[in-house]
Write a structure and sequence with these properties.
15 helices, 8 strands, two-stranded antiparallel ribbon, mainly alpha, single chain
């Protein structure tokens, strides 16, 4: 393997890992903010319990996302210095604004929310959470702006071979970003919805398994209480039933949102990166048919190796142009066009190392783009179907006693994660061989693009990169065990794991009920840091 290959593997591993945390942080943060808003408006105890339980899981995931996100920025300078020099004048603005939001607004107000229980007025405390959550959403937009410029560079001019920003408004309102952003947010909400649904199903099942809840002759739930299991009262049942229903609704709405925004994004990609979409459909020849199933050699870039087994006439034209008759250019038509515009060989420049002068492979690995595109849609559809079924199943107030259905619900949490990861892998690998894809609306010398082969740091050796990718992968594996272990511990513990005050009811102090303060705990009860711990 060459230094370029190892550097790409390193960035791919760390980025996909980091993005496991990002959608859950964004989606779950919004859901927790809504839950606390409900509690603030209604005063119902179940909403307080939901806020603290899901908020605890949100915090565990948030800190892991921050830790892994910092590594991403260091990689730009360490492994991709030539790329950083090329895009630096453009990326400086959006990444600086993202850092201000992520490391100042988000962290400050999230800290106030964490440690503000029993200290801040309810309205101020709620506002802190909303500021932190909205900050994370805006932060995501600036990251999308930077990534979208790599997909579709705008608002720049070339000065001595490097793009310089001349129109900040064009960069920040890039049509690629305006479509990708809502698609990403909807994907994040899909992750949050599946997360709520799977965990809430588990707890409703466990209440039945432990004999706390039963059903009557008509199948409707008979809610019970446990005198021996901490926090398993009737309000606990409301927490999980309401959480499941919220999760199902969020999952269904977000799937519809991702489908709509995904269609818009797909039409834009057919214009801006036609090779990516042709490879995603294994469309070797011009035509109108969408491939439901094609077969070919894994890793192949040769259309002769691809055989379409099942096709839907006209569907590809609809996805690209909104009609059923306009032909879509295939790989065999696009390759000569790309070669005419961007050359048949890499430039004979030292920056390319041993790759200088070699043939440019304009066709991405079709197995990755083809199946990545379908896995994104498939996992998303599975999650939406599961949400619909779950919403119907709990109409009588509980879930079936089947252990296999419970396990299926828990495994279902992974489906929207899979859809998000597959979508981003398709988006990034489908752009190859460019790290900054050319804008087809630009012409001649103003054409701004960069081959991936030119982006890697020239002074970094294979050994250094190999060491870093092994070290980072090992550290990330340990962190994954830590995060999953923490999540599993608190999920199994239920609401009581996030609300230690449930273990010390007010009446326990001298037999008197001293009342409750604004967050449901006792005025002089547990340490305010207990929620953070």
């Amino acid at each position: 393997m060459e230094a370029l290959d190892i550097a790409r593997w390193q960035f791919g591993i760390t980025t996909v890992y980091h993005f496991l945390m990002v959608p859950l942080t964004i989606g779950l943060g919004l859901v927790v903010a809504v839950m606390q808003t409900f509690w603030h408006r209604t005063g119902k105890d179940e909403y307080l319990r939901m806020t603290k339980f899901w908020g605890k899981l949100f915090l565990i995931n948030f800190i892991m996302g921050v830790a892994t996100g910092i590594v991403q920025e260091f990689q730009f300078g360490m492994a991709w210095s030539e790329y950083s020099r090329f895009v630096g004048d453009v990326f400086g603005a959006p990444l600086a604004m993202e850092a201000l939001l992520a490391f100042f607004v988000e962290s400050t107000f999230l800290g106030l929310w964490i440690f503000g229980w029993k200290k801040l007025p309810k309205a101020v405390h709620l506002a802190c959470l909303w500021v932190a959550v909205v900050g994370s959403v805006i932060s995501a937009y600036f990251i999308i702006v930077a990534n979208s410029w790599m997909q579709h560079p705008v608002g720049v001019k070339l000065v001595n071979g490097h793009p310089q920003m001349v129109d900040a408004w064009a960069v920040f309102t890039n049509n690629t970003a305006l479509v990708a952003f809502p698609h990403t947010i909807m994907g994040a909400l899909a992750v949050a919805g599946g997360f709520l649904l799977g965990i809430a199903w588990y707890h409703l099942w466990r209440r039945r398994h432990d004999g706390i809840d039963t059903v009557d002759a008509n199948g409707y739930v008979v809610v019970g209480e446990s005198a021996t299991i901490l926090g398993r009262d009737k309000r606990d049942h409301k927490v999980w039933l309401t959480s499941l229903r919220i999760g199902a609704v969020v999952a269904m709405i977000s799937f519809a949102g991702t489908a709509i925004t995904g269609d818009l994004q797909g039409k834009l990609m057919f214009e801006q990166q036609p090779m990516k979409m042709a490879a995603a459909e294994a469309a070797c020849h011009d035509g109108t048919s969408f491939s439901v199933l094609s077969w070919g050699d894994v890793g192949s870039r040769n259309c002769d190796d691809v055989v379409a087994l099942i096709e839907v006439p006209g569907l590809l034209s609809f996805l690209a142009h909104g009609d059923f008759s306009t032909e879509v250019k295939g790989v065999n038509t696009l390759v000569p066009e790309y070669q005419a515009k961007y050359g048949t060989n890499l430039p004979d420049n030292p920056i390319y190392g041993d790759r200088a002068g070699s043939d440019v492979q304009y066709v991405p690995v079709m197995a990755v783009t083809y199946w990545g595109f379908r896995m994104m849609i498939g996992f998303g559809g599975i999650a939406a179907l599961a949400a619909f079924v779950a919403f119907f199943v709990v109409r009588k107030g509980t879930v079936p006693q089947s252990k296999w259905l419970m396990r299926l619900a828990l495994f279902g949490i992974l489906a929207p994660f899979g859809a998000n990861s597959a979508g981003w892998i398709f988006t990034e690998l489908g752009r190859q061989p460019f790290v900054v894809a050319p804008n087809p609306q630009m012409n001649g010398i103003d054409q701004v693009f960069m081959f991936t082969a030119a982006a890697v740091s020239p002074g970094v050796s294979i050994g250094e990169l190999l060491f870093s990718v092994i070290a980072l992968t090992a550290v990330y594996a340990v962190l994954l065990v830590v995060e999953v272990g923490l999540l599993v511990t608190y999920i199994r513990g239920g609401v009581a794991s996030a609300m230690p005050e449930l273990a010390h009811p007010p009446a326990a102090a001298g037999g008197k009920d001293k009342g409750k303060d604004h967050d449901g705990g006792t005025p002089d009860g547990d340490d305010v840091l207990a929620f953070a711990y």
